[in-house]
Structure prediction request, 354 residues.
Amino acid sequence: MNSPSQYTDLLRSLDGMKNWRALGVIISCFILAFAIFTGASLAGIAIGNTTFAIVLSVFAGIVGGLIAAFGINSVGIILMHQALNQPPPAIGQALLGGMTSFFKLLAIVLIFIVGWIAFSLIAALLILLCKIPYAGPVLYGVVFPLLLICSGVAYVGTIFGGSLMAPAIWRGATIGEALKQFAAILRDHLVETIIRFLLLTILLMVVFGVIYGILAVGGFYTIGLSASIIGTGFGFGMHSLTSFSGSGHAIAMSVGAGIIGALLSGSAFCAYILGMITIYLAVSRDIDTSAIDERASQAEPQSAGKPASVIVTAPVMPTAPVAPPKPAIPTCPKCQAVVSGNDVFCAECGQRLN
Prediction:
């Protein structure tokens, strides 16, 4: 288990609120999905055919859901680059990666469903064997604790550990690599993962509770001041609310509140996504992801408009041959007079030479 100080990395999740690229993508995708579904519903009502309206609404709901899912995964890829201190991807690259990630995660969900069905069948078969006369109760004494532990770990692990498969896919893992990481997290870091998720939930509840409280106080003040200046339409009585519903100021206030609500919702969503990524990076720190990182580095495109770096070296100019050094002329260490190599004493001052 980690010391309490090692859980402070969850504070990085609040940095997701500052990523305007991710905020723009998620808000735009949600607005587009809502517009498609609302437009299809209104078109179905205008046509007047109930069957056609239902079919059109279902189709629009599927399309809108796919757009929202693609946007969520695109935001995950953008925030994964931020968590790994990598340059942010282009919007088109993030959207394309979001589509691919969605279908990978859909395949993982189907694998989980098949796994749960197989687990339930095996559990039912074991319990059925416990109906054998005489030996059944003895066998149930072994089967019961075994199923209790396995089902608890599988259920809680699927909720918490399975949710970390999304960050694994956003990092570039294949379906097989993500499932191997899921098994490793389930085996070694399940309790730590649960604690981190609970701490992340508490952190976001406190932060956004304070933010919504500040906005609530500001809303009461602004509405009260507007009521005293603009007049009818900003009061709190029934008559004021009735006249307020169709006024231009009411529409403007609704639009402004909608913008603030969209920013807050997008900020909370990005903070939660970055928190999930932070948890994944923490619990997978001892899992070998070198193949994923190497594959990601090889697939990283060069920046648009920037040529590949080229090392330019100056041409080597020919140089003249270096003459060998001249031999040193022996001199007297005292008077510096020139002496011969065979002299024992200096002829000028009598200094002994060797």
Residues 83 and 278 are 7 Å apart (CA to CA). Residues 235-246, 302-317 have pLDDT under 50 and may be disordered.
